[in-house]
Structure formats: C-alpha cells, structure tokens
Structures
1.
Amino acid sequence: MVEVVGIRFKKAGKIYYFDPGEWPVEKNGYAIVETARGVEYGQVVIGRKQVTENDVVFPLKKVIRLATTEDSEQVSANKKMAAEAMQVCQEKIVQHQLEMKLIDVEYTFDRNKIIFYFTAEGRVDFRELVKDLAFVFRTRIELRQIGVRDEAKMLGGIGPCGRILCCSTFLGDFEPVSIKMAKDQNLSLNPVKISGLCGRLMCCLKYENDNYESAKESLPDMGQLVVTPLGNGRVVGLNILERLVQVDVPDQGKALEFTLEEITEMEKVN
C-alpha cells in the first residue's frame, strides 16, 4: 500500500496522486507539486489515504510544499496574463490566416510555459505562429489541439436538461458513450435529442447504463412469446425502470402491462 493525496489543477480536471511526505496536507487545501510540465499549484481534493501500487504511476512525485497566500496571488496574476496572451494570439492567428479557433490560454505556475488550446478541422501548420508568440512572450510556447468535448469542458454551458454541463462541473475524465446505450434506455435516436452541446452523445447516457443492462437481463426480449394470466401473448414493449412487460394479448385486443412474476416465458422468437 502507498500513502497518497489526490490533487486537481483545474475545476473538474483529472485527479493526480502525489506523495504527501511529511507535509500536513489536508483536503480542500492547496499545495505546490512537481508535474511533468513543471511546478504547479493545485487543490487537494482527496486527503491522505492508502491505495494499492496498481493505482499509482511510479515514480510517484512528491508534494514540494504547502501553498501560501503569495502563491494564490501568483495564480491570479497568471490568469490575467493568460487573458492578455489570448488576445495577442488571436491577433496573430488572423495575421497568419490560420484556420483554427483559439479556445483557452494557460500559464504554468512557474511561468516557464504558455499553453494555447485550439480546435481545427484538420492539421494546422502553426510553426510561424509559434515563432511570433515566442518572440513576444520570451518563454516556451505550446499549441495543443483539442477535440470538441474538451472544448465544451473548457468553455462550459447549459445542457438540454437545463443544468450546467457535467464535463465542466464534476467529470474528471470522459468515458466512452455509444448509441447502444440510448437504444437500451428506449430513448429517441434523433441525434439532436441525445447529443450535448459538443455535438457528441451526451455523457449522462453512461450514468444509468449499468442499471439498464442488468434490468434487461431479467426481462424477456422484444417479440418473445410469453404466458400471462389473461392468455398467451407477444412482448411489444418494456418498462425497464419499473421492470414491467407490455404484452399484446390477442384475446384482449390490446397491449397490457404485467410484472415479471405474472408472466412465463414460452420460447424465443427468431
């Protein structure tokens, strides 16, 4: 077992494990840590805990120290500088007539690098743009192309449900979402109704998918013949959440709902 703390660098960003060492690191506090891209300032979202070695990527980096008020002020100053850098970069993009959309700009905590996030339809030759930006800011420049889901996560917005986007509030990682999940939940397959602001399938389709899959295993298939208290019939609908089966019983002239206990499977119809 390894003792770690979980630190996040962005709102709804991925959580990374670090070795707290002897520092009195507490949940909701802030710490300075060393990352692959340099020294960073992050919030402790998971207090000290023991995890297995399989949950940790070695070598495990250590917490350098606890964050101070001066560190917080530097982060605020970095955000102001990033806003100015974004305006400069947008002007340079226009000058170079590049087909790219600048989404966000971020300074690393130690200001050793500026990261420009952008979207584009395809590959973009931004070598001259990097040279211009390096000349203006006199520091390392990184241009990082992101996808539409990452764009929605950074920009935020209101989803079809009327709530702030999940990706920009609490989802640390994107999980695969398939059209099969929508089918299993008996949702409309109209892309407009099951897509988020990013144009991809909504992340929330994943939330209840496991419950729907386990429920479907106990229910008969569509078109299957079953025996009901009112006679033989064919399954024409499923209410998965309430675990009810809609059966077309010819003698009744309409489809009726039955519980699993009230029906007996006869045979599966190919």
2.
Amino acid sequence: MKKIVVHTGRGPGDQLLEEREALDAPDVQVFLRGPCETPAEVLEAVRDADVALCGKEPYTAEVFANAPRLKMVMRYGVGVDTIDLDAATEYGVVVGHLPDFCIREVANHALVHLLACAKRIRQLDHTLRQGSWNAARALLTPMGPIHGETVGLIAFGNIAQALAKRLKALDMRVIATDPYLPVEVFKEAGVEPVGLDDLAARSDYVSCHLPLNTHTQGMLDRRFFAQMKPTAYFINTSRGAVVNEPDLIAALVEKRIAGAGLDVFEEEPIDPSHPFCAMDNVLLTPHTASYADETMATQRRRVGRDALAVCRGGLPDFVANPAVLDHRRASLVSSQ
C-alpha cells in the first residue's frame, strides 16, 4: 500500500520540485491540499494521511485525535508554535522540524537591521530621495559609533550565537539572557550572561531570538521597554507574538526608545494601516530573515527526505517532541 503524504500549506498549483526529488517514489503518493487555515481544514486534509507537511497551519489536538494514520507532521523551518506538541506526543505523532535551518541567514538579517538602525539608513535614504541633502545630513545625530556599544541578545540559541560572532567581529560588547543554558555556553562564546532587566538597561541594541510558546507570548512588554535606554533600538527576527505590540508602539511614539527593526509581527501579513508602517524610526521586512535562494531549496529537499524516511519506518533528522519516541504510532512499514 502506498504511503500518503499531504501538504497542508501548498495547493495543487504548486510543484514541490525539491521535495519530489525524494518523494517521487513508487511507494509514496503526494497530495497538495492547502492552503489550510483552520484546524477543521487541516483535519479534512490529513484524515487519511501518513505524513503531513506544513508551514504555519494549525495542528491541534482535534487533528491528532481524528487522523489515526498520521505518523508525522513535518514543519518547514525551526519554529513549531502552530503545532500542539503535547497533543502530538499524546497521540504518538512525531513532529519533525529543522532547528539548524537558516541560522546564518537570520543572524545576518538581524545584523542588517541593527546596522541599518544604527546608521539611520531608512531615514537618510528617504529624506535624500525627496531632494534634501542638508535635511538628510541633519538627521545624523544622535548616532553611536557601533564599535564598543553593547548588544543584548534575548535567548541564546543557535541563531543568537551566530549573531554574537558577527557582533564581536565589529568590536561590540555582547550580553545575553537565557535561563535554560549553562554558564559554560556563554563563557565559550565570550558573552556575558545577564538577567532580562539588566539586559534591557545596559543594551544599546536589543535583538530578540525567543521561540513562541505559552511562556514567551507577550513577554516583552511596557515594563521591558521602559527599562531600555532612550537611545536604544529593538530588533526582532524571532516571532512577533513574543512582543506586546501596543506596548512597543507606545514606547516608539513616546520616544522611550530610539527605534526598531522588525521582521515579524503579531498578525501577518501586516496591515498597511498598522502604526509601524507610519513610523520613520522603524525598519520593516516581511518575515524574510530566513530567506536565501539556495537555503530555501536545501530546506525543501530536507523536508522531502525526512518525509520519505518516515514513510519507510524511520525518523526525521530532528524531532521536536522527543518524548513521543517511546510510544509513537506503529511503524509505517507494518501492514495496515
């Protein structure tokens, strides 16, 4: 019997060229059933699937309880915040992801935001294009030197560690907060571990790298921004919902911080009427920090290979819910 792989983010018009390098196999059948936006739509798509491929679609307990053949949900990328990991584990479904994906790309993108904010690139470019050389030059101050300034990293995982290397090459001081890491990790990276309050107070730039979960949602709020320097910038390339956006907006409007560089938002795509879009001290990009042509092609190939591995009774390279391995649903190579 062929194993069924269903994509809940891509529709019939998509080709999945890289994924099919692995999945165009005689024992696998691929269906593109997306884009699914609700748990009900996801369930309808994967009810008879063996493996599901997904982007941001909601995989809830309802989905796992009512899709008895489902053995794995493979998430493109690092984050798994749209998947109920506890429910997946309860029902024996492996959640695959790619935690080593796009580390350098996101680190580079965060650095681009930081440097653009530091040198006020957006404001200078906009003003100069409107024909006013002198007005553009009048925007130069205040502007820090970059070297010797302090960057605070909120969470110190793979991406933040890669960013720290880049920052140190610019002769910047790097501090970080992450209660889940041993002090040896910071020491090896030459980064000072600090608490969140200390980080806010000392940093000239704050770069956020938090995963989104029940503990981090809305974690960076009015209290946090009130502790930042009025000359400091806030950079976020992680998840929009870790920030209380109304509180960040208030901090920017009231000039309690100097500006922000944002790649992610509470609601995506961001509405053109959003207050951020009218702020000249905010640099915006459309959740593209992970993007590079070859990186995305490699990601898609890995998704295809991981899906095929599970179709043949194996496991993906990375499992987001390792507790499931003791009781995952019966091997797909067994008769059904």
